[in-house]
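Onboarding guide, step 5: your first structure request.
Type a short instruction followed by the sequence, for example:

Predict the 3D structure of this protein.
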Amino acid sequence: MTELEEYLNVNNKRQREPDRGIDERFSLYAWSGGYIWTRVPGEQAKPYMAKYYVAPEELAVIKSGHRGGNTIEVSDAKKLRAGQIVRINWYNKEGENSSLIKHIYDNQSVSIGSRHWESPEMPLVKQEVTVSSIEGNLVTIKEKLMHDLKPEWYPNITKWNFLSEVGIEHIRFEFPFEEYFAHHLEAGYNAIYMTNTAQSWVKDISVHNGDSGFISDICANVTVEDVTITGRMYHYAVQFGDCYDMLARNITVDCPVKHSLSFNTGARNCVFTKCLVTTEPSLDQHSGANMQNLFDDIKITEDDPSRTFFYMGGDGYWAPPHGAFSTFWNIQVNFTFTKPEELPLPIKGVTNGPSARLVGITANYPVSISYGPAAYMEGINRSGIAVSSLYDYQLKKRLSGF
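The system replies with structure tokens like these:
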């Protein structure tokens, strides 16, 4: 919290709403802290500033590996062992015109924020993986590599200190009612905050009158399911921050929320599936090298023709809002307003988001979608998609061994 406070001050992070007489520094609890907080003592809940960053122990230098593969060649594997959960890191030491940046954003013409090159000693991309086996200097991991492993990206394997097998379930949080004051100035009524946690779960949770339901950073392989969010305005319902391989399933958001379902700064390979958002829906992609995430089999209700459910949060220094291959699959929209004069109804997507995948987006009115560069669209306004859940389809494939 000391680091976060300095970060907010140094970067002059303030909520300014002149029409309401508001000009205040962001709260420490806008996206951190919780009544239940999982953390490893002495470990950063989330790194913000290079001056506070302590590089974790290096276990191996990586020589090669290919996106989609499971095999990594390292210089020396003696510090690795089968069954170990470790972190793979990619670094941008090439500056503003980095080949890693171009790779992440699929070589598309998008504006890139300065955070991508300001801290070369901190990894730009991370992936928490499980070592399956080791033969000499060839390491096989359980997960598929998110990116190639090239020498110019200085990839390495480092130690990760985390909690595991943490289960939080069958709990209702009800906070005293207070009118929501302002975005980023939340008082801290956050139910659950997970940090440095892996192979864990949150299940059968309800939150009423909170600021945030579930928020997270530096986590991997956590399932959040059967969560209900109700009451007054929130900041986040369920948010995946700087996390990898997280799953949110059966989330019901039945109240206004600034960011209903959020892939936040650093979210990688995460999934929202079988969710329902009934009020002011936002499928949020928060600028900050979040990539390869999936919104899947989601139902939303919209009563304002001027809004868009494609939401682009975050600050410009972390632009663009997402990396290549963010996917929207089987998104079903129920517009409750009267028939608009203009059909198909124009829906604004994320203008600066590259190479997105939009498949099977339907509504009770025909829609036309504009999205950022190189977006692939299929099955727009066509109901009855053959594969209703891409997550379920791929899960069955994995379990059957393809």
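Each response can be followed by summary notes, for example: The longest strand covers residues 190-208.
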